[in-house]
Amino acid sequence: MLGSVLKNRKETVFRILSIVLSSIFFAHIPLLLFLIYMGHHGFFSYDFFSDGLFGLKVFFFLTSIFVLITSLAIFWWVIPLVEKWKKGTFKLWPFIGISLFNLFFLLIVVVSIPKNGDYFRVAYILAIGFFVSLHVAFLIHAKPSEQFRSLIVVIFIITFMSLHLREQASSVLAIGLKSYAVGGGIEVILKPKLKQNDNLTGNLLLTSPKHIYIKLDGTEEISTIERSKVDVIQTKHIKKINKD
Q: The whole model's pTM is what?
């Protein structure tokens, strides 16, 4: 009996450890996307990681939650299948209900793709969602040793896929940056605080605590401008005001 208790305690410790390590990896998927995004566009922001730590953590947290919720909204059906595989238990009607729920959200994703949309980007997001859901299923129903193996495989696949599909990975991060109006290629006007200087226009890639990284119109290189010297104005806001 003592051996059984010690075995269960050891299994519980390893199960908790696998959950903690998995959570750390999921929380750092946005960091991987940030590094790929910067490398894809040819710049690196030191102060973004050193001075923007709080904002970075908030962005990472929200992105990780979004990845997890989106994954389960489309691939929840994976969990009962893994349960059947590992434990031999299977409930048909709940599985059908979950599958219909997931199919509904998948149709929403497919319908929402623009006519000229990037299908590879959508496929990349769906692939990440599938492997995240698969690993969540292993965390729930598999043995600790299998959970660790699953984590290693998922880390390798997601990292390899992200590095191989750098353009798609960068475009996924750009969606989040655009939603907060801090980058992602949105069109902006930089208005210098010194009146004698002319305004600058271009595509904003990233706004860090100290610098602005922008591809100015008519250039291919990325320009780094001190944030304290300019005011950033989104052109779409200007168009909206003019229409009103």
A: 0.80
Cβ-Cβ contacts under 8 Å for 105 (sequence gap 6 or more): 73, 74
Give the chain's radius of gyration (CA, Å).
22
Residue 160: the pLDDT is 92
User: In the chain, which stretches have pLDDT less than 50?
Assistant: 1-6, 238-244
> How far is 49 from 58, CA to CA, in rounded Å?
13
Q: How far apart are CA 104 and CA 44, in angstroms?
A: 40
Task: Find how far residue 11's CA is from the centre of its chain.
Answer: 31
- What secondary structure does DSSP assign to 113-139, as a single string? S-TT--HHHHHHHHHHHHHHHHHHHHH
Please enumerate in sequence order all residues whose Cβ is within 8 A of that of 61, keeping only pairs 6 or more positions apart, or say none.
27
Q: Which residues contact 66 (CB under 8 A, 6 or more apart)?
A: none
Euclidean distance between CA atoms 56 and 50, whole angstroms: 10
| SS3 call for 24 | helix
Pull the structure tokens for residue 206: 């990233």
Largest CA distance in the chain: 83
Question: Cα torsion at 140, 146, 151, 154 (round to 10°)?
Answer: -100
At residue 155, the pLDDT reads 92
pLDDT for res 116? 52
CA 171 – CA 37 distance, rounded (Å): 8
Please give the pLDDT value at position 7.
55
pLDDT at 240: 45
Does residue 86 sit in helix, strand or coil? helix
CA distance 23 to 147: 13
Contact 191, 180 (CB under 8 A): no
